[in-house]
Design goal:
binds pyridoxal-5'-phosphate, single chain, 15% strand, 14 helices, 14 strands
Length: 392
């Protein structure tokens, strides 16, 4: 690797840049995780997380990556052979489905084109057909990190209600929490799965289950084998600010600081900032003459934009060139869109000038890689950012 001075540009859709304040908070001597100082920290973060999920109900913290919290959501609520309805919105929906298969669940998988979110009408129709209510859970990925497409969770809840179906609603908000308006209680989500390393501005290593009363009830009769992921043991210990096994104490110090930063900025301002940076990215993409993978503007992601390469050009070669020449990491295309798209992460600890630098790196990379495009992307983005500067 060539030597590069200055800061690396990490513009993948997670793990994201960790603010210096959070890094400093993590840099803390080890403390006794069964002592009073720890309990104070744990109670503070367990409470402080709730508004970010839009809930007043419990949020569970696991020392695990997001995949662990996916598994926890399923094993705590379901029994072997239960039917679950899942939608192929992209690579992460596919991986959650594989996990459900491996656990012995019976998955009804609705195929998709990776360019659209979950269709509420299709969900309603599938549930209406299930007169015996054999489908026990609906699983949806709020923000498909592999495609930059969101699904409207509020509309999915309405579709479930319209079908009069009692299935649980399990939502992956791993790359939308802390970037996009999220309302666990209002939307009647039963389990929200999230992780630390994206909008929450932390390293990977913490993941979350926000749970409804209905999910808690379901966990009392669910039969899938579970031990480490058991909510009941964790909730019991959490009452006094403790965990049944060793917690990731230093990440919890980081979480406390990240929550403080989010409170200082304000959740609505955070969502508006992400919306604006995402819009600037799309304007740049359109001005380059390239196509955004997401086909429905109502489903554009605030966290990440997947950009389609012109036919015959390799997204991976472009990313490799940009890394080598400009020391910037962009997200790779995953699964079905491998090498066909590159992804610009615009989430977490990010501002106008960081995005401007990112888009400049992409535009220079497109030129150097001889990818057909117009050199107007950065200009279009800067114009939009300048015009909308007062709006946050
Ligand atoms: C939407 C989504 N779901 C699940 C995962 C898997 O999480 P992890 O890699 O933290 O286990 C990711 C990771 O990028 C993701 O973006």
């Amino acid at each position: 690797m060539a030597f590069h001075s200055g800061r690396h540009f990490l513009q993948i859709p997670g793990p994201t840049n960790v603010p210096d304040r959070v890094l400093r908070a993590i840099d803390h001597p080890t403390i006794d995780h069964r002592g009073p100082e720890f309990a104070e920290l744990a109670l503070e973060v367990l409470e402080g997380l709730k508004p970010v999920f839009g809930t007043t109900q419990p949020v569970i913290i696991f020392p695990a990556s997001g995949t662990g919290a996916w598994e926890a959501a399923l094993v705590n609520t379901l029994s072997p052979g239960d039917r679950v309805l899942m939608f192929e919105t992209g690579q992460f929906a596919a991986l959650w489905r594989r996990l459900a298969d491996r656990l012995g669940l019976q998955v009804d998988y609705v195929e998709g084109d990776w360019r659209h979110g979950v269709d509420p009408a299709q969900l309603e129709a599938r549930l209406a057909e299930d007169r015996s209510h054999s489908i026990k859970a609906v699983c949806a990925v709020h923000n498909e990190t592999s495609t930059g497409v969101t699904s409207d969770i509020g509309k999915l809840r309405k579709a479930m209600d319209a079908a009069g179906h009692p299935a649980l609603l399990l939502v992956d908000a791993i790359s939308s929490l802390g970037t996009t308006d999220y309302r666990h209680d209002e939307w009647g989500v039963d389990v929200t799965v999230a992780g630390s390393q994206k909008g929450m501005m932390l390293p990977a290593g913490l993941s979350f289950n926000a749970i409804s009363q209905k999910a808690l009830e379901a966990s009392k009769t669910a039969q899938l084998p579970r031990s480490y992921w058991r909510w009941d043991d964790i909730l019991e210990a959490n009452k006094d600010g403790f965990f049944p096994s060793t917690p990731a104490t230093n990440l919890l110090y980081g979480l406390r600081e990240a929550l403080k930063m989010m409170q200082e900025e304000g959740l609505q301002q955070i969502y508006a900032r992400h919306e604006r940076l995402a819009e600037a990215t799309r304007r740049a993409t359109q001005a380059w003459g390239l196509e955004v993978l997401c086909q429905n503007p109502a489903e554009y992601s605030c966290s990440v934009t997947a950009v389609l390469m012109p036919e015959g050009h390799s997204a991976d070669a472009l990313r490799a060139l940009i890394l080598e020449r400009f020391d910037m990491s962009l997200g790779a295309g995953l699964g079905k869109v491998a090498d066909k798209v590159f992804r610009i992460g615009h989430l977490g600890h990010l501002n106008d000038l960081m995005l401007a630098g990112t888009l400049a790196g992409v535009e220079m990379g497109l030129s150097l890689a001889d990818v057909p495009h117009q050199r107007d992307g950065v200009r279009a983005a800067l114009q939009y950012l300048a015009e909308s500067a007062g709006e946050k």
